[in-house]
Design a protein that fits this description.
The chain has a single domain, classed as YmcC-like fold (Beta Barrel). It has a 10-stranded antiparallel β-sheet with strand order 7-6-5-4-13-12-11-10-9-8. It is globular. It contains 2 helices and 14 strands; from the N terminus they run βαββββββαβββββββ. The longest helix has 6 residues. The N terminus is likely disordered.
């Protein structure tokens, strides 16, 4: 039960918080002889739409659809969204969920974002992945360039965003495997703390994979002092 003294940040009322119990996490931050201080967090909710255009070969990018990502105290949950239904996805060390985690800079496999971002910044990283139906892993090397800032508009709004280009080369682990190059252009918004738009092109392939932010709900934080 809430005590007499209540502090709400960002002008959000207690009444509004109380109706979102499915998104709330209580954390005890400190305790004294007279009071215990608890802080209430509501997740940042972001919804993305991924579409595949043209003909595309097999890949780990089997992410076409609408996905909701919630971030609460650094913990990300991923949901498939189909109409009014949501189903949580289990995060795997490789494959589609790692692609989705890159949207909020939380992938352990792929460092598509490196904070703090600044124009002119560059970095490289390597990882292995297995394409759908393959028996061998692909070894991939990526080089990321932060090339500028642009105003980007999506169904979720208009955002000032960093423009990044990821040039990635891949080689198969098999003796007969070849190499391929993938270029991904994406836009990171400090306001949403996520990639708000991206498009991915594979050399010698007429298809693209495009993702954009279609819904964004800000996270809020409220602290309350409870009397024993």
């Amino acid at each position: 039960m809430l005590g007499r003294s209540i502090r709400i940040e960002n002008g959000i009322s207690v009444g509004l918080l109380a109706f979102s119990t499915n998104l709330l996490i209580w954390t005890v931050f400190g305790k004294s002889n007279l009071y215990s201080v608890k802080t209430l967090f509501i997740a940042v909710i972001q919804e993305f739409n991924t579409i595949r255009k043209g003909q595309l070969g097999k890949s780990t990018e089997q992410n076409e659809g609408i996905y909701e990502l919630t971030v609460t105290q650094g913990v990300v949950k991923i949901y498939d969204v189909n109409g009014g239904q949501k189903n949580e996805r289990s995060v795997q060390p490789d494959g589609p969920t790692q692609i989705l985690l890159t949207l909020v800079g939380k992938s352990d496999q792929r460092q598509d974002l490196k904070f703090p971002l600044s124009v002119g910044q560059k970095w490289t990283y390597k990882y292995e992945t297995r394409l759908l139906g393959d028996k061998f892993n692909q070894r991939r090397s990526a080089e990321v360039d932060v090339v500028g800032m642009e105003q980007v508009t999506t169904p979720a709004g208009s955002f000032k965003a960093y423009k990044l280009i990821n040039n990635e080369s891949a080689s198969s682990g098999s003796l007969v495997g070849g190499t391929s190059n993938v270029t991904t252009t994406y836009f990171y918004s400090p306001e949403t703390r996520s990639i708000v738009k991206s498009y991915r092109v594979v050399d010698n392939n007429p298809g693209t994979v495009e993702t954009e932010l279609i819904k964004f709900t800000r996270g809020i934080r409220a602290s309350s002092i409870l009397q024993p």
